[in-house]
Amino acid sequence: MIAEDLHTQTLTQLAQGLEQGDFTSVELTQALLERIERLGGDLNAFITVTADRALAAAERSDAARAEGEIGVPGIGVPGIGVLNGLPLVHKDIFCTRGVLTTCGSRMLENFVSPYDASVVERLSAAGAVMLGKTNMDEFAMGSSNETSYFGPVRNPWNLECSPGGSSGGSSASVAARLTPAATGTDTGGSIRQPAALTGTTGLKPTYGRVSRYGMIAFASSLDQAGVITRSAEDAALLLGVMAGFDERDSTSIDQPVPDYVAGLGDSLKGLRVGIVRQHFDAGLDDACGAAVREALAVLESQGATLTEVDLPNLDLSVPTYYVVAPAECSSNLSRFDGVRFGRRAEDPEDLLDLYCRSRGEGFGAEVKRRIMTGTYVLSAGYYDAYYLKAQQVRHLIADDFRQAFADVDVIAGPTAPTPAFKLGDKIDDPITMYLNDIYTIGANLAGLPGISVPCGFADELPVGLHLVGPHFGEEQILRASHQYQLQTDWHTRCPEAFA
Amino acid sequence: MSLDKDQVQHIAMLARLKVADEEFADTVDKLSRIVDFVDQLSQADTENVVPMAHPLDAVQRLRKDAVTESNQRGDIQKNAPAISDGLYLVPKVIE
Amino acid sequence: MTAAWEVVIGLEIHTQLATDSKIFSGASTAYGAEPNTQACLVDLGYPGVLPVLNEEVVRMACKFGLAVNATVAPRSVFARKNYFYPDLPKGYQISQYELPIVEHGEMFITAEDGSEKRIGITRAHLEEDAGKSIHEGLDRQSGIDLNRAGTPLLEIVSEPDLRSAKEAVAYMRKIHTIVRYLGISDGNMQEGSFRCDANVSIRPRGQEELGTRSELKNLNSFRFIEKAINFEIERQIEVLEDGGKVVQETRLYDSDRDETRSMRSKEEANDYRYFPDPDLLPVEIGEDYIEQVRATLPELPDAKRQRFVDDYGIKSDDAAILTMNRALADYFESVVAAANAQPQDAANWVIGDLSGALNKDGIEISDSRISAEHLAGLINRIHDNTISGKIAKEVFEAMWGGEGSADDVIETRGLRQITDTSAIEAIVDKVIADNPGQAAEYRAGKDKLIGFFVGQVMKESGGKANPGQVNAILRTKLGSS
Fold this sequence. Notes:
The complex is a heterotrimer.
Chain A: H1 2-5, H2 11-20, H3 25-43, E1 46-49, H4 51-67, E2 87-91, H5 118-125, E3 129-134, H6 168-175, E4 181-186, H7 192-198, E5 201-204, E6 224-229, H8 232-242, E7 272-276, H9 286-301, E8 305-309, H10 317-332, H11 351-362, H12 365-378, H13 383-404, E9 410-414, H14 430-434, H15 441-446, E10 450-458, E11 461-468, H16 474-487
Parallel strand pairs in A: 2-3, 7-8, 7-9
Antiparallel strand pairs in A: 1-3, 4-6, 5-6, 5-10, 9-11, 10-11
Helix pairs in contact in A: 3-4, 6-7, 8-16, 10-12, 10-13
Chain B: H1 5-14, H2 21-38, E1 62-63, H3 73-76, E2 83-84, E3 87-91
Antiparallel strand pairs in B: 2-3
Chain C: E1 5-16, E2 53-54, H1 55-67, E3 71-72, E4 75-76, E5 78-82, E6 92-96, E7 102-110, E8 116-128, E9 132-134, E10 141-145, E11 152-158, H2 165-181, E12 194-204, E13 214-219, H3 222-241, E14 249-254, E15 259-262, E16 275-276, E17 283-284, H4 287-295, H5 301-312, H6 316-323, H7 326-338, H8 343-361, H9 372-383, H10 389-400, H11 406-413, H12 421-434, H13 436-443, H14 449-460, H15 467-480
Parallel strand pairs in C: 13-14
Antiparallel strand pairs in C: 1-11, 1-12, 3-7, 4-17, 5-6, 5-16, 7-8, 8-11, 9-10, 12-13, 14-15
Helix pairs in contact in C: 2-3, 5-6, 6-8, 7-8, 7-9, 9-10, 12-14, 12-15, 14-15
């Protein structure tokens, strides 16, 4: 009886069920592993399923709960964590000790991490049970999950469509109810865009809020770990565990972590919501636009006030991003040289051949393009015109947001310009693909928290509402999302084939 | 085309990437389109704007000078493609 | 070098900082471990790992900056220098580029003509060291040991103010002295803790514009630096005088052949693509911090040298030698404090016999087999006439050999000087009686024979008779009869 509907429950509901003894973590884990086995194949959402480890971890969780050890969750602290026995999946960008960690690349096809990422460590310490590692665009470079060496992930709402990217395996697996929650990373929209395209809730925290240690770097000044869940409430629960200072990450910020769940209940009365006019200009799909406008009306009906805000340099955010991100990635990915780990070309003639072939064979086309773009914009003679210029424009964009947040608490708009697109539609045109992230990239450039919540459908495909907050404004975007989700049921919709 | 074949060849060499012959023309084409696209930045007026390298205005934190790592060579080198007596092997380095 | 050409040299000195752990990781910096046993995930550039800066490294750089009268930057930035090399795990070196931690310093050296000369220090920046390639015993392959990767380095860049190989060496020695005084580096050149690259060019004397320079890499002994630079100067003169052009290039000094040769492998268009490291934030150093560090600075060699001259009245050259090494200077001061004798005597012993013995055994002053107190004891025994200067050499040897304090040696070996006048008179009487012929000749006016008699008396006394007393008593006895 229980096993049949466990997959439909949110993390928060499952936590209650475990607490009340309605079912065990082993039962829950088995149920989800069975779904992954049965339904996961078509989606290609997983690179690795860690069934044995998951069951072992679930058994430990059940035992801990049976012994009734109550303690404050934390690394090395005994007792039951807030996530005790709750299953989730990790994007394959997070290093997991003793488990294959591929980053969606042929380069790391056989790479077994000798250590756990901070995010993995914290979630495990809180009792979470890892079911597996999700598919992703190679090194998180892509917006459709088609750049993965392990093949594209399919959207549970329409298997011919992309689930978005780069955290496409995470979004698809949550949307298909193969897991209640997944971790993801967001460099230009890689959590929020796939969440929008799959009807899930995707949170990218403030830069520095969650440790980047053990998260394979794409663009260090933009990357941030977050979650894809079925509700804002679940995202708040997970963020509370993941967030916080980590002495191993110099860019992690030493600021207290609020109780994100506790703040969700407050009403939206007086919440000042900023609307960016350019977000509704040409380029936004009509049906998407309509869904987002309707969502804004709901927020207004809940007591929020809507104001127009101006982000004059927003048009330049995509070109800025496509200088900064490739520049950083070109350097970050230099460590993959076939010497200490990763793919190594066979029978290299000499050192140069070892490098060029190992990297040439190990990286896919999009990753190579970005490395080359980055190499170009940093190279002698072009640095000022591209890299330095982009860093200056980045400053202008960040200032635009700062000014806007003087007048509003949250900026709202669409997450993506269109609903999920067909696999193969955009992959040959990098620029069209890049423009998918036009609404999300600004938050990364400025280091702001952002969330996408389901707000309707266009052509039977989900649409996302995007909320951005000021630095460390996770509480207000989570609260707005939660209050919105109390009023609407878009986030509860499930693709039929996966109900 | 904003980039020519020689430039792309040079970039690929700097980045130590072998681009297969059959991919080369497409690479030149796509990179050129990307460069054309980011060229929009030149329109922005950035006089006296300080370049922004970090999204947060924070400063570097310092750690205590303490040895916290122990030898884990065996575990770590399981990922190494070619080792001998604990050394990572590469084709002979000529100085 | 020649009347026609002026030599222009600038040095880039790489000093390993004497921290326990690496600049960006908690791995040990200890030298000589088994390959790759001190290379942790951060040092290896493993996917996902991140650097965190060692506070001691900042303090040490700050100390150096203050010691050379430089500006310690209120804000400095780490940048990535991108290039591929097997000993560079991440494919980039974390260094400082546009905003180094130390700028605009200076240092004074004694030029060849004995005058004092100012050498500008352009900058000193922090960076991580690379690993090592090993070629021995491997067929067509190289082995990479990354234990050294991530060891903190302070790269000290001079202005092109040096005008000869000798000046370059004098400057490098001075920096070597300073970093060891500050305790920020062990300065061990054999282990590569202190090495330099030299930028060398020549120009016709009187010409303002600098000539094309070559960069000599990895010079790791004072002797090689001088030889390499001199070879390079000769080579460039030859090229230019033959109507050729000096090519800007990197050259490696081959000590076996005493020549420099072009490193073509490094020549292919370097484009390091420096940019600020996004994994590290700007380092900010406040005035308070700088003042705290300043308060911990030791007395530096120039000041110490002056004080030795002023307070102890020792020769300036001796003071210079003693203060080249802080431990040696400290040793000298301990000797002076424990001895009742003139500081110059202490200086003579430390610079002479003691340094000689240290050199001969190839050990550092810190490992001296004779403590400062024991050396002072020896000097005291000379001063109070317990032993003669000559016997003192024997006592010194015995002390060096581990026979204990001067008093122990004097006692055990029975070396106490004979100062008892009657005892000396008895020996003198015997010697005069045994040599009546010489005595007669002396009395007849052959004064030089006094030396013969002193020698005989000393021999008879086993070297222990006080030479002054022997002389006086001999003259009296030979003259009086």
